[in-house]
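Task: sequence in, structure out. Protein: Crotonase/enoyl-CoA hydratase family protein.
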Amino acid sequence: MAEKLPISTPHCDVERDGHVVIVTLNRPEAKNALSTDMLVGLADAWAYVSAEPGVRVGILTGADGTFCAGADLKAMGTPSEDERVRRRAAEIPDFHWKGLLRDGQPTKPIICAVEGYAVAGGTELLVGCDLRVVAEGATLGLYEAKRALFPMGGAAVRLPRQIPYAFAMDILLTGRSVTPAEALAMGLVNRVVPDGQALAVAREIADEIASCGPLAVRAILRTYRETLCLPEEEALKVSDAIGWPVIGSADAKEGSRAFKEKRPAVYEGK
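Result:
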């Protein structure tokens, strides 16, 4: 049974169900457009995912069949009516960038479950996630250039590193909408599923990840991030430094025992 956590805000529900944290953008009256309440909730949620030893993966989704319609400039410039949110906004440096997964990305995988609109800041959130499940009726796109704006959430840097250059420039420079089928063909998303099924499929993937060795999962993420711009020879040195402690861990020994004994492994993150 999922438990709603006290770090939730009026526009962001944060729930924990075992090893999985489910973060729901909850401002359906504005198509889950970004607000201070939402970004503070996101920033606290990602910090919680990283800090809690028992949490192994996070899921990001949106309420009422919409993921996120991007920035609501008026709402983002308006202080929250919630006293705790106002305090956290003052306490968290660059809470908006942390919430958008631009800065200080979680040390554990984040899966997005997308239904409906995921445009502008919604697509930037998707690009900041590690795995992406998208409903077949969803709409993606980075509309900023069409509005004479700039994708400040990091997509101008990340998108050409994640998918082929020509595809990335098509999305960024035209500001057009992108269908889930196109996004899948480009390699931008992992799975396209029937409408209404994105969260359920994301949860299946989350449970698969949560059943793996948590030290290994975090090490794989960390290695990718720390070696992205390094030559292979230097990258392999970083990979060895991160990987050898995992090979020698108690979890690795448990994985070998479980395989030999033909039983599910019980990992403790040690």
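The two ends are 26 Å apart (CA to CA).
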